[in-house]
Write a structure and sequence with these properties.
177 residues; alpha+beta; 6 helices; 8 strands; binds iron/sulfur cluster
C-alpha cells in the first residue's frame, strides 16, 4: 500500500517519499464578534454564512491539525497522531493562526467553494456535517455555549497527539490511528 502524506488541518503539505501531506486549518472560535443569528447552522448552507458565522462553526477540536496519509491507490485518508508543528498539543490551538501560512504554507483554508476538501476532515467536523446536511453534535460549543465542551466531551484531539518534533517524519505510517 502506498500513501501520500497529509497534514491534519486545512493544510496541504508537499509530496515526498510517495506520500502526499495535507493539513487542515483550525478555525478558532472567535468569542467576540459572535453571530447574531444563534441558529444559523440550522437554516443556512455553508455558502450563506457570514464570516463570523463561518468562524464560530469551528468547534476547536484540532482533529484536522494532524499529519494524514492518503492511500495513493484508493484515495482513502488515514489520520495519524502526529500534530502539525504549529499546534500546541496541550491546548489544541494553533500557536500563530493569523500568520500560519508563513510557517506552514500548505495549511489550506476550508471553503464552501472547494467541497472536495471536506472528505479529508474528521466525521465530527462541523463544516463537514453542515456540508452533508447533518446536525451539529450536542457537545458543539454553539449549542452548549461553552468553548471547552468539545474537550470535556472527549471529542477533541486534546492529550491525544504527539508534537511533530518528537515524531519520525520519514515514517509517518507507523503513527496511523
Ligand atoms: S498551521 Fe495552525 S491551523 Fe494550520 S494545520 Fe497547523 S496548527 Fe492547524
Ligand atoms: S471543527 Fe473542523 S475545522 Fe474546526 S478544528 Fe475541528 S476538524 Fe478542524
Amino acid at each position: 500500500m502506498f500513501y501520500l502524506p497529509l497534514y491534519h488541518s486545512n493544510c496541504i503539505v508537499p509530496q515526498f517519499l510517495g506520500y502526499r501531506s495535507l493539513l487542515y486549518r483550525i478555525n478558532l472560535i472567535v468569542l467576540i464578534n459572535m453571530p447574531t443569528d444563534m441558529n444559523f447552522w440550522k437554516t443556512k448552507n455553508l455558502h450563506e454564512l457570514t464570516e463570523a458565522e463561518w468562524e464560530s462553526l469551528c468547534d476547536g477540536c484540532a482533529k484536522c491539525c494532524v499529519h494524514k496519509l492518503e492511500d495513493e491507490a484508493t484515495g482513502e485518508v488515514h489520520y495519524t497522531c502526529v500534530a502539525c508543528r504549529m499546534l500546541d498539543v496541550n491546548t489544541c490551538r494553533c500557536t500563530d493562526y493569523p500568520n500560519r501560512h508563513e510557517t506552514v504554507p500548505d495549511c489550506a483554508v476550508l471553503s464552501a467553494d472547494q467541497p472536495a476538501h471536506f472528505q479529508w476532515m474528521p466525521e465530527t467536523c462541523a463544516y463537514r456535517l453542515i456540508h452533508e446536511g447533518k446536525p451539529l453534535p450536542s457537545w458543539h460549543p454553539l449549542i452548549t455555549g461553552n468553548p471547552a465542551s468539545v474537550h470535556e466531551h472527549g471529542a477533541s484531539a486534546l492529550k491525544k497527539l504527539i508534537p511533530e518534533f518528537l515524531a519520525d517524519e520519514e515514517d509517518l505510517e507507523k503513527y496511523i490511528v
